[in-house]
Amino acid sequence: MGKRSGSRSSRSERRAERQRAERARDHGLPARPLSSPPAGGSQTQGALDAPREHSPESGAAPSSRSGFPLLAKVLILAFVILLGVYLLGRQRDKALLQGATPSAAVRYG
Q1: How far apart are CA 105 and CA 98, in angstroms?
Q2: Is 101 strand, coil or helix?
Q3: Which listed site, 7, 66, 68, 81, has its alpha carbon 20 to 30 Å from 99?
Q4: pLDDT given at position 100
Q5: Over the stretch 40-86, which tens digit does the pLDDT of each residue have?
Q6: Cα-Cα-Cα-Cα dihedral of 23, 25, 28, 32, to 10°?
Q7: Residue of 34, 33, 44 lying closest to 5 (CA atoms)
Q8: C-alpha distance from residue 32 to each of 5, 21, 24, 28, 39 (Å)
Q9: Do residues 17 and 9 touch, judged by C-beta distance below 8 A?
Q10: d(CA 49, CA 39)
Q11: Distances in whole angstroms, Cα of residue 46 to Cα of each of 3, 34, 36, 42, 64
């Protein structure tokens, strides 16, 4: 008898899973519930086409798609860094000009 279309695994696969769980318990590992889906399960074509949605309470990590694309984030970061360097340079120049006396500015200028 083959695997039914609605079943998750064959009888031999379930038996092997129970044996793995027994060996894990013998070695002191925590037991995993048998009803959980396998980590590397196959998906149907429709499931691959549909985007995955994660709810905040699910505890799973959200997909890599956040609000902005990576290029926009990098450009914004570069702009903020350049703006900071510009403002610090203006502040330094202003402090240098305030500390200089007019006679010193004439001699070196």
Answers
A1: 11
A2: coil
A3: 81
A4: 72
A5: 555 555 555 555 555 555 555 555 556 889 999 999 999 999 999 99
A6: 110
A7: 44
A8: 25, 7, 9, 12, 12
A9: yes
A10: 19
A11: 21, 26, 22, 12, 21
Beta carbons within 10 angstroms of residue 9's beta carbon? 14
Mean pLDDT, the chain, rounded, equals: 74
User: Who contacts 24 (Cβ-Cβ below 8 Å, separation ≥6)?
Assistant: 30, 31, 32
* pLDDT above 70 (res 9): yes
Q: What angle do CA 50, 57, 9 make, to 5 degrees?
A: 55
| Structure letter (DSSP) for residue 57 | G
User: d(Cα 104, Cα 97) in Å, to the nearest integer?
Assistant: 11
| pTM, 2 dp | 0.34
Amino acid making up residue 47 = A
pLDDT value, residue 103:
60
